[in-house]
Design brief:
single chain; alpha/beta; Rossmann fold; 5-stranded parallel sheet; 12 helices; 42% helix; globular
């Protein structure tokens, strides 16, 4: 692992359906600090269900999402299955594309181009990581912006940086919705983002900047990281190491977003240490993960509506 919480984004988040929301018997005061991603995700998915029905009624067409899986990595198989199940739950048609482990970059790109040209496909998701030596960036760039519901292309990132409409990377977009749900005022706030992934840290920093926060983007080579974090009003951890962020790093009253997921159902933040000084904190499981998938599903419905000329 280099930095930037790549494992979380590449492997997905498994906490949508399982595990307690309140870790380790917290008292009522601490429960009040939790940012409940599951409840918000349920509302987002209900809204997506209603949008799918409006699209069907207006056009007779069912929105669809193609999930492209290369190889048979057990975790990736599980995550694509979970995404297809979420599609079915809201009425989206999941299109399952599975390619062998020895697929070449050229074959993967050609597959994506076929999906891009198919008007019955409204969103395309390439499950990552893809096996080496596939050039994942070449595969991502074959996805047209209007079908990039996972927010992985350079064109999408550019639009996010400039504050233009886009189907943004699902995890940072889900985090922004979670912050809004809990009335976190970002205007003038100092935010520290740990992790510089092009599909998490970098778009996250840009979204915060566009919301008028002052942002420091950190990574594994950042010097004096604890000192930087101690000044933050909002901390977003996507560093890819369990319990990396210590409770002593958190300023009293800070909002802590744990965008990590590691073996043993633990995040990148030492939850027990951070919950005391924090004013709000996302649990793992039950925080960011459900919002990531709900955002993907919601953006797929919006992509279908745009392609079909439907106003939602």
């Amino acid at each position: 692992m280099t930095d930037c919480g790549i494992r979380f984004l590449q492997r997905g988040h498994r906490d949508t359906d399982s595990g307690p929301l309140y870790p380790r018997g917290m008292d009522a005061i601490n429960k009040a600090k939790l940012m409940d991603g599951r409840k918000l995700a349920e509302r987002v998915l209900l809204g997506a269900t209603a949008k799918v029905e409006r699209i069907r009624q207006a056009t007779g067409i069912t929105p669809s999402l193609a999930t492209v899986l290369v190889g048979n990595d057990p975790a990736s198989v599980t995550y694509t299955r979970m995404k297809r199940k979420r599609c079915q739950d809201v009425g989206i048609k999941p299109v399952r594309i599975e390619l062998p482990h020895d697929t070449t970059t050229e074959t993967l790109v050609a597959t994506v181009e076929q999906l891009a040209a198919d008007p019955s496909i409204h969103g395309i998701l390439i499950q990552h990581p893809v096996p080496q030596p596939i050039d994942k960036r070449a595969a991502f760039e074959a996805i047209p912006v209007e079908k990039d519901v996972d927010g992985v292309t350079s064109a999408t990132l550019g639009r996010v940086i400039l504050g233009m409409p886009a189907f943004a990377s699902c995890t940072p977009a889900g985090i922004m919705r979670l912050l809004a749900e809990y009335n976190v005022n970002l205007d003038g706030a100092y935010a520290v983002v740990m992790g510089r992934s092009p599909i998490l840290g970098r778009p996250m920093a840009s979204m915060l900047i566009n919301a008028h926060a002052t942002v420091t983007l950190c990574h594994s080579r950042t010097h004096a990281l604890p000192t930087i974090v101690r000044g933050a009003d909002v901390v977003i951890a996507a560093i890819g190491h369990p319990h990396f962020v210590q409770g002593g790093w958190i300023k009293v009253g800070a909002v802590v977003i744990d965008a990590g997921y590691n073996e043993g159902n633990v995040g990148d933040v030492d939850f027990d240490g951070a919950i005391e000084p924090a004013s709000l904190i996302t649990p793992v499981p039950g925080g960011v993960g459900p919002m990531t998938i709900a955002t993907l599903i919601n953006q797929t419905t919006d992509a279908a509506a745009m392609q079909l000329g439907i106003s939602l």
